[in-house]
Write a structure and sequence with these properties.
Helix content: 40-55%
Structural class: alpha+beta
Strand order of the largest sheet: 2-1-5-4-3
CATH topology of the largest domain: Beta-Lactamase
Radius of gyration: 47 Å
Shape: flat
Number of helices: 23
CATH architecture of the largest domain: 2-Layer Sandwich
CATH superfamily of the largest domain: GAF domain
Distance between the termini: 81 Å
Strand content: 15-25%
Low-confidence stretches: 59-78, 407-411, 435-446
């Protein structure tokens, strides 16, 4: 094919794809997508003389069923290849990729199948098959062309399917909404009769005034809750009537400022009792309004109660102002505010935002603001909201002076159910308007009665529980989980009775915090919830609660459950007390934890081992007594890996490095195992530890002593031998060492700074070396200034003194090691001085003295220029000598010449 022919073919394909996109995009049904798309593709006879579009009956790779959705006419000469196209489509579906098949006869030479995958799907739902009169499967432009055609078919099908699903979902939601409204209407009607039969007798009894005080208070509380329940029933009924179009304004002439002032007079005291400032701006309007009074009052009361609920401090403002042909009423608060993303949601029916810890109540059905919006629109107005989190909100209702005319049906259409201020105040009175005002229970001596912590955000319910349970329990009351947790930690109760749905920390969160606190985790916690059913109770128990009660509850059942759980907790506490007593009596350190590593108990022996107490907890891995991962990563990884092995294998033994609270290192021998707890479905980890710090130090000390003795044996010069002694004794006993070497006719003394004369030593050290010091350091366990190494076979020449930084006791093991090193050192000195019959012992000793004098001068330079101690300077020289394989004397000479650090000299 020439370049011109390729360009023409490409232009034709682009034109076909453009027309295909238009045909698919304008189609309104799946059938139109198929038929119009196939018709467009048949216009490209140059590439494909036949076109089939096949639909996969059961989408998914490996399916073998497909059917012709749109096909070539029977008169098409290539229709005889329909079965071949069908078979090739099945192969393409099975492989999930394009397939080609050669043909013979009837004008077509090749079939090409392109799977079509709709957006968002993983398997093809269609297969596009074309037949060409020339082999084109190797033409990259042709394959790209068919792939784009398949994408366009997939997009058309996918879009129409998604649109159909959305329409079906919308219809389903409308049906559900209508069913919900009908259900609420029926339920509301059914509830009104029993509510009337409760309210009327209550009013009759309360009006008599001859009831005992306690009974009168209880019945008054019941009457308040009846009013609240009646208001909610009326609101649900009104919503169902709005949905059915059976509510319309009852228009009368109104003095709006006077109505608002009446509401202010009744609602204001509740706002002020909550500690808020109530600002009112109600001027006269230029004209009277023709509106529905019940609707207007319902709007304003809903906004005021909403502002009071969500304003913990600050002020609430109610204002009225004329605006154009109407007026606006605004309620502004300084409360918690509403995020921008939630400002549309709050006007939806039964929509509730996440509970806020600073709200005065978490109760509500999510109908107040929805009712405001619905009624405002019925009066011909609208509601606007301006709000920001933590800065407050302003709800503005704009209403005309005259409600729009509404054609009223002859029957069943009326205004909303009248609800005055009293119905709203009944709700407000149940909120937390300030510090908890629960009547205190009679004072009892500590231990007389169990201490019960009641956690409930409803003031009415918490007051009731406090009153009815005070005959058996000493009752404390908290309004939310955070307050309850603080009270329980301050004074541990015998049980907690908690609501589930509360602001801040809810009941489930409270259970989690209690179970995580080592001092509270065994407390019985009973949950109260309005959510009934197996799923709700299972969720409560799964959170760790001991019991779950559903509101409304039976008081005798509540009492029985409280008593039972407190009794079981007391039994568990007695068992735990016995266990703690046994654990405390053990001399070895004992630690008990759960399988997550949270420590539940350890004894005094463990406290002495690591310096931490249970009151410093809770403790979870990594524990503070583990090695510091920053300074000792290998030790930290070793103990961490051992704990992982313990959980996998169930047992663990070993000796591990720990860190005392003071910072010193301790070593402990571990023996640990995982213990199954019968009947509890969980396990505990028991660890016993033994302090082996001294044993470990003794082993390390003996290993170091053996290494130093080996170095003594390998030393071939007196210079090297003295260096080993000075450095090794300092490291082994953590003190400044002074070494005295006896040669033929001479005794020379060495320190880290080089050779010194006896009269240049401190008098106390000289006396120690000479054995003339009269101080008795041999008292067992007594603190001494240092340790003297005196070979038993030497008459007074070779010996060493190690001066401690601070006086301390010398263990028997240290003394044994010191005696061993003293003998090794003396033998090494004798060996070096007597090697070779021709060796001049005096010359060797003088050469050693000269070498150490040179070394001492180098040490002095390092001390002066690099601010090192003499011991540090000598060790630096020695390490550099060993690392660089240079005699220490030669290295000291380089330091004297250059003044550089030994590593650089």
């Amino acid at each position: 094919m020439s370049e011109a022919e390729r360009a023409d073919a490409a232009a034709l394909r682009l034109g076909i794809l453009a027309r295909l996109a238009d045909a698919v995009g304008l189609a309104e049904t799946l059938e139109q997508v198929a038929r119009r798309g196939v018709a467009v593709l048949r216009q490209n006879d140059a590439d494909h003389a036949a076109v089939w579009l096949l639909e996969v009956l059961q989408p998914g790779y490996g399916d073998t069923a497909a059917t012709v959705l749109a096909d070539a006419p029977v008169a098409d000469p290539d229709h005889v290849h329909g079965l071949d196209a069908h078979a090739l489509a099945i192969a393409a579906v099975a492989s999930g990729r394009p397939e080609a098949h050669p043909l013979t006869g009837h004008g077509l030479v090749e079939l090409y199948a392109q799977p079509v995958v709709e957006p968002g799907q993983t398997s093809p739902s269609l297969v596009l098959v074309v037949g060409s009169t020339q082999p084109l499967s190797g033409d990259a432009g042709f394959t790209d062309y068919l792939e784009v055609a398949g994408v366009l078919f997939g997009a058309g099908y996918g879009g129409l399917r998604e649109l159909a699903q959305e329409r079906q979902q919308s219809e389903t939601l409308r049906e559900l909404d209508a069913a919900k409204s009908a259900f609420l209407a029926n339920v509301s009607h059914e509830l009104r009769t029993p509510l009337a039969l409760i309210a009327a007798p209550l009013d009759d009894v309360l009006q008599r005034g001859d009831l005992p005080t306690l009974a009168g208070d209880r019945l008054a509380m019941v009457r308040s809750q009846v009013v609240r329940l009646t208001r909610m029933v009326d609101a649900m009924l009104d919503f169902s009537r709005i949905e059915a179009g059976r509510i319309a304004p009852t228009v009368v002439e109104l003095d709006v400022p006077a109505i608002l002032r009446t509401i202010v007079a009744a609602f204001g005291p509740a706002i002020e009792r909550a500690g808020l400032r109530f600002d009112v701006e109600i001027p006269e309007l230029p004209r009277t309004a023709f509106l529905d009074q019940d609707m207007l009052e319902r709007i304003v009361l809903n906004l005021l109660s909403n502002a009071l609920k969500y304003t913990p401090r600050g002020s609430i403002t109610l204002s009225l102002a004329p605006v154009g042909d109407g007026f606006e009423i605004a309620v502004t608060d300084t409360g918690i505010g509403i995020a921008v993303r939630d400002q549309e949601r709050i006007f939806a029916r039964f929509e509730q935002l996440p509970r806020h810890s600073r709200a005065r109540s978490t109760e509500g059905a999510g109908i107040g603001l929805a009712m405001v919006k619905e009624l405002s629109e019925l009066l011909g107005g609208r509601v606007d909201l301006r709000s920001a989190p933590a800065r407050g909100s302003t709800f503005t209702i704009r209403l005309p002076y005259r409600a729009p005319a509404v054609a009223l049906a002859a029957e069943g259409v009326r205004s909303v159910t009248p609800r005055g201020v009293a119905a709203f105040l009944a709700d407000v009175e149940s909120w937390d308007l300030g510090p908890a005002a629960v009547a205190p229970a009679p004072v009892a001596a500590p231990g007389d009665r169990p201490l019960l912590l009641v956690v409930e955000d409803s003031a009415d319910l918490s007051r009731y529980l406090s009153e009815v349970l005070s005959d058996t329990y000493e009752v404390m009351v908290a309004a939310d989980g955070l307050q309850a947790l603080a009270m329980a930690r301050s004074r541990r109760p015998d049980a907690i009775l908690s609501d589930v749905m509360m602001p801040g920390l809810d009941g489930f969160g409270l259970v989690g915090e209690v179970r995580a606190d080592p001092h509270l985790r065994d407390l019985p916690v009973l949950l109260l919830s309005a959510r009934a059913g197996l799923e709700a109770s299972t969720a409560g128990l799964a959170q760790g609660a001991d019991d779950y009660l559903v509101k409304p509850f039976d008081l005798s059942d509540l009492r029985a459950r409280l008593a039972s759980n407190i009794r079981r907790a007391a039994d568990r506490s007695a068992d735990a007390s016995w266990r703690r007593a046994i654990v405390r009596s053990l001399h070895e350190a004992v630690v008990i934890s759960d399988t997550s590593g949270l420590i539940t108990e350890f004894n005094d022996a463990f406290r002495r081992l690591v310096g931490w107490s249970m009151s410093d907890g809770p403790f979870s891995p990594p524990y503070p007594w583990w090695p510091d991962p920053a300074t000792d990563p290998e030790a930290f990884e070793r103990i961490e890996e051992a704990n992982r092995v313990l959980l996998d294998d169930g047992v663990m033994e070993g000796e591990f490095q720990l860190r005392h609270r003071s910072g010193r290192t301790v070593w402990a021998s571990y023996n640990a195992s995982v213990v199954e707890l019968p009947g509890r479905g969980r396990a505990a980890v028991l660890k016993t530890l033994r302090d082996v710090t001294r044993d470990h130090a003794a082993r390390v000390r003996r290993q170091d002593a053996a290494r130093i003795s080996a170095e003594f044996t390998n030393a071939d010069s007196l210079e090297q031998l003295v260096g080993i002694a000075v450095d090794g004794l300092h490291a082994l006993f953590d003190g400044d060492s002074t070494v005295q070497v006896a040669g033929p006719g001479v005794v020379q003394t060495f320190t880290a700074t080089g050779p010194v004369e006896l009269d240049g030593l401190p008098a106390a050290i000289a006396a120690r070396l000479a054995g003339t010091d009269g101080t008795d350091d041999s008292e067992p366990g007594g603190a001494v200034q240092g340790i003297l190494l005196v070979p038993p076979s030497t008459l007074g020449g070779t010996r060493a003194w190690v001066q401690f930084g601070e006086p301390r006791a010398v263990s028997a093991d240290e003394q044994i090691v010191a005696d061993m090193l003293a003998g090794s050192f003396a033998l090494a000195v004798d060996r070096v001085l007597t090697v070779g019959e021709l060796a001049d012992k005096q010359a060797n000793l003088e050469r050693a003295i000269e070498s150490h004098r040179l070394i001492g001068q180098a040490v002095g330079i390092l001390v002066e220029r690099h601010r090192l101690t003499p011991s540090q300077a000598f060790q630096s020289l020695r390490r550099a000598s060993q690392d660089r394989n240079i005699r220490i004397r030669d290295l000291a000479a380089r330091v004297l010449e250059t003044g550089l650090d030994p590593d650089a000299a």
